[in-house]
Amino acid sequence: MPTDALRDLAAALQRRASAAPDATRVDRAERLRRHVVDYLAPRARNAAAPLVVAILGSTGSGKSSLFNALAGRAASPSGVLRPTTRRPIAIAHPADGGQELLPGMASRDAVDLVMDPAARRGLVVVDAPDFDSVELANRALAVELLEAADLVIFVTTATRYADQVPWTMLGRAHQRGVPLLAVLNRLPPETDDADAVVADYRNLLQRGSLADAGAFGRLEVVPVLEDALDAERDALDANAVAPIRDALDRLMADEVARRAMARRSLASALAGLPAAIEEVATEVDQEQAAARELTATADRSYRERRAALGEELGRGTFLRAEVLRQWQDFVGAGQVARILAQGIGRVTATIRSLFRPGPPAPAVEVREAAFADLVALAVQQADAAARRTSTAWMDDPYGARALAVDARLWGASSGLAERLVADLEAWAAGVGDQIRVLGEQRKGWAQVASIGVNAVGTSAILAVFVHTGGLTGAEVGITAATAVVNQKLLEAIFGEANVAAFVTRARASLGALIDAAFEAERRRFDDALGGLAEATTLADELRTAARRAADADLS
Asked: Is the pTM of this model over 0.70?
């Protein structure tokens, strides 16, 4: 039995309906999901459930009159007001009340269910709204009943049987594979004229490949003359609809035939699932292709801007010259050179003079200024990446829709600068911890480091930001001088090998910090695509579940 496959298909369709990018595609997925949940799954679970017979037709075709004739009383009002049937009306035997009767529509209070002891047991007959109603909701209910029916009685008239709208519905019924009975109502009283109309309609059914869609073999047309009315019951004349009534009676009297029709209807509906699902799956494929291209555009933009930021960080030229001069004035570049020239043995005794008494060291101010320069540059590059991505997305309908929902994508996120500052402060704290560890590892030098961890830490941070590699022309000067001062000072305190390893690690962790910030900025574009970027396997899941259901053994 296909119950497991239908359960998986319903779940996949639910995911699709919740993530589809527009109302039309949501409706298509939801309509198929209801078909699976409200008709296919209940029928697959219980082949003995009452058959659903839906009477479908266009406005004024006489559906309600036929319904009343089959019910034997005025159960559904007919009249000149169109549309007359605004809600489906179903009639069933009370003994069938414990069964799942149109469960989906009943749960939404979308059908009037009448229990009648005179109704045929094991059969639910439904007077459907007009499928060409001026009211969209009526048309949707008619289509839903077509999907849920085990048998469709299709009613048209002598003047409208060749109209396009009825044939569109017949084509849908043929695609669905539901067994059919045809009623051609309001035929002219003249025998020759009536016979000509019936013959033409049969010919059209033959040409439309519907001749073999009959509920009991070849599709027969039941002709009803224009004056065949029972005014007392607001119904078609009982004799006129006798072939339909007798066919239903025989069906209910033969349990084997009734179950065979239920299996036939279910098998046809299951067989049609792959084709019906393919439309949805193809849409998902197209959306996934678009999503991949859109995310690739975002990846490219942020990758290029991150690389540009990395180049500027590597050169150290993003720092303002006044910040570097302030630091050089503090440590006294000339004095550092003299101390280092005295030899490594003299550094321990004289390094303290670099941090001479007087005004508080500007370590914190210099570090904050350096962070501000870095953050400003990072935000500038993230802003450029966002603008470039958004500009490219405007040329794609899915991208344009995402931008319309969240206009903030045109720039860097408002909290980026604040987050970067917090991350840099945490990074700086880690740098300070590493300095303490290095000092503890070198006897005698720990005392030097204790002169001012903030000052030595700021020197270490600037050593990460500023170095001589790659500097050319006008860039050599204050930037290169600062790089030399910091490098020599740190090497004098901690040793050349230790400093090289420390700076490498610190630069790597700084790069990871910035990478994470840019990745978070880029992910905003993934989030804007929503389910479009997430349902990477949904199309395959839909196709697989539909094929499993169609191939299930119903015996």
From this structure: no
